[in-house]
């Protein structure tokens, strides 16, 4: 009888079958954290205690206190993401299509991009106050450059054949934008979506942390002021879960909108 | 009768990337006429500027000197009376087969429903019914070419410019496509300028075959009327004695150029 080789056995197990092991790993880490802090091997004052962190989280959600703060942070993230993307798309298309303008602005774009933009936060606080708009502004500067560079590149890398074909089919300058440049650029924007939504989130939280009256960043700042390390960790947990959820949302969106792309 | 397309003493030179080097002359003093309803094939060795010539005829590339006339009118800008079938993939990858075929009509401002109705008809005609909603990467090479053909023909151009459109296809698909092209062409005699490096394809399809010299500075060095009867079946006509005789005559001229082109390729 002929023996059939089974290549499946040699490859790594499917991700789904790893879920129990991954959960077990999380439990081990939590147990170690609990054990070390409960036995005072690690000082709970600096490292927090899992039970108290959980109690803090429970309190936030039970009292409903967290929803306002989370809502503000998510609103800032969303606004920063949308505005930054639109701005990056518009200016990326403009500079990508206008050789003169891009040559003129090139050194300034490089300069602004290499500047650590988080230091703009104090300026935005002065300009826009301590409300949501200073955080949105910070997020926008972070998202903008990411999207801008992607779109700029996308315009440069549009297939010349596809472009020539569209012109032969009768596309005017404006139609080239609609039929070729814009769809091509959007695909690149989506490629950077994961990073840019993360950036918008960072802008919102860092902005809050540097000065605000609402938001998850503010909760962390407040807890830190009270030397409440458990509160800080609870805030971080909330942010992490939110970031993961946003990332999943983006993946879902991407799969729906980029069906035309070969895998 | 005015010719559908006339290139008169067209020269195309390109500025070199490095300074101080002489500019590269792709085509020199090329003159070419395509009569109304005529199928003209241009053959030449690789790199002889065939595509350059086609781009000039399409209005995508303004010639350095010389003039292009389309039905007697001097061409400026894009040639609006011509359709262009490219050698490389030219479909918009973010549009489905259907949306690619409707693109030209949409650009002309037709209502979406009208565009779709006409595109459905064309997709059926090129054998893509049932594949309308697939994206280019989900289609095979032959299907993509069919979609590209429908995309161009739906606009009913008077002149058809074709740049080795079937060179990337396997031989069976290719002969099928060639026959389909002939069938579509004989239905409403468009003027065709067909570029290829495949002499057999040129003879099987065309009314007239033009031979270009090896580049740079290539020009037409031979012209042959193909008096094979129509309608033709491209796979069968290759076996006929008349075909073989024509092939022999043209190949004698083309061979030297191919060798020259090959030698230059080796140097480069």
Could you characterize the architecture of this molecule?
With 263 residues, chain A is an all-alpha fold. Chain A has a single domain (57-257), classed as Orthogonal Bundle (MetI-like fold). Chain A contains 13 helices and no strands. In chain A, helix 11 (193-210) packs antiparallel against helix 13. Chain A is globular. Residues 1-10 of chain A have low confidence and may be disordered. With 268 residues, chain B is an alpha/beta fold. Chain B folds into 2 domains: 5-81 and 158-267, P-loop containing nucleotide triphosphate hydrolases (Rossmann fold); 90-156, no CATH class. Chain B has helices spanning 50-58, 97-107, 112-125, 141-153, 171-187, 199-205, 234-237, 241-267, and strands at residues 5-14, 24-34, 39-43, 65-70, 73-74, 82-85, 159-163, 191-196, 208-212, 220-225. In chain B, the strands form 2 sheets. Chain B has a 6-stranded mixed beta sheet with strand order 6-7-8-3-9-10, sandwiched between helices. In chain B, strands 2-1-4-5 form a 4-stranded antiparallel beta sheet, with helices on one face. The longest helix of chain B is centred in the C-terminal third of the chain and has 27 residues, at 241-267. The model of chain B has no long low-confidence stretch (mean pLDDT 88).
């Amino acid at each position: 009888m002929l023996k059939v080789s089974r290549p499946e056995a040699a490859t790594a197990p499917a991700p789904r079958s790893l879920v129990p092991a991954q959960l077990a790993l999380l439990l081990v880490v939590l147990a170690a954290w609990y054990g070390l802090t409960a036995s005072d091997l690690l000082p709970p004052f600096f490292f927090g205690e899992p039970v108290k962190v959980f109690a803090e989280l429970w309190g936030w959600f039970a009292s409903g206190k967290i929803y306002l703060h989370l809502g503000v942070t998510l609103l800032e993230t969303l606004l920063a993401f949308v505005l930054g993307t639109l701005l990056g798309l518009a200016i990326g298309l403009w500079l990508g299509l206008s050789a003169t303008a891009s040559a003129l602005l090139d050194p300034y774009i490089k300069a602004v991009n290499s500047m650590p933009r988080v230091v703009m936060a104090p300026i935005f606080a002065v300009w826009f106050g301590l409300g949501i708009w200073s955080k949105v502004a910070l997020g926008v500067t972070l998202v903008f450059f990411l999207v801008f560079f992607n779109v700029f590149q996308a315009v440069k890398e549009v297939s010349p054949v596809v472009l020539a074909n569209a012109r032969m089919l009768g596309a005017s300058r404006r139609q080239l934008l609609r039929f070729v440049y814009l769809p091509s650029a959007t695909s690149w924007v989506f490629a950077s979506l994961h990073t840019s939504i993360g950036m918008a989130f960072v802008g919102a939280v860092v902005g809050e942390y540097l000065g605000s009256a609402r938001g998850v960043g503010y909760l962390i700042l407040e807890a830190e002021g009270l030397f409440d390390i458990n509160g800080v960790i609870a805030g971080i947990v909330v942010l992490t879960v939110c970031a993961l959820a946003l990332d999943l949302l983006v993946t879902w969106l991407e799969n729906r909108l980029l069906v035309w792309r070969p895998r | 009768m005015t010719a559908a397309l006339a290139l008169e003493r067209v020269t195309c030179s390109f500025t070199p990337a490095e300074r101080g080097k002489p500019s590269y002359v792709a085509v020199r003093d090329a003159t070419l006429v395509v009569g109304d309803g005529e199928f003209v094939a241009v053959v030449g060795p690789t790199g002889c500027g065939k595509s350059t010539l086609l781009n000039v005829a399409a209005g995508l590339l303004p010639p350095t000197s010389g003039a292009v006339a389309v039905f007697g009118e001097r061409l400026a800008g894009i040639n609006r009376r011509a359709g262009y079938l490219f050698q490389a993939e030219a479909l918009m990858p973010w549009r489905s087969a259907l949306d690619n075929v409707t693109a030209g009509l949409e650009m002309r401002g037709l209502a979406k429903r009208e565009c779709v109705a006409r595109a459905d008809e064309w997709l059926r005609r090129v054998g893509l019914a049932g594949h309308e909603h697939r994206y280019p990467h989900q289609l095979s090479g032959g299907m993509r070419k069919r979609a590209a053909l429908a995309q161009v023909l739906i606009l009913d151009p008077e002149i058809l410019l074709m740049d080795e459109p079937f060179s990337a296809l396997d031989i069976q698909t290719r002969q099928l496509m060639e026959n389909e092209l002939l069938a579509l062409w004989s239905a409403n005699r468009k003027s065709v300028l067909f570029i290829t490096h495949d002499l057999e394809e040129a003879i099987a399809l065309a009314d007239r075959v033009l031979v270009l010299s090896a580049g740079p500075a290539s020009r037409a060095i031979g012209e042959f009327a193909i008096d094979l009867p129509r309608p033709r079946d491209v796979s069968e006509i290759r076996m006929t004695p008349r075909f073989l005789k024509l092939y022999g005559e043209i190949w004698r001229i083309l061979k030297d150029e191919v060798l020259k082109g090959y030698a230059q390729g080796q140097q480069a």
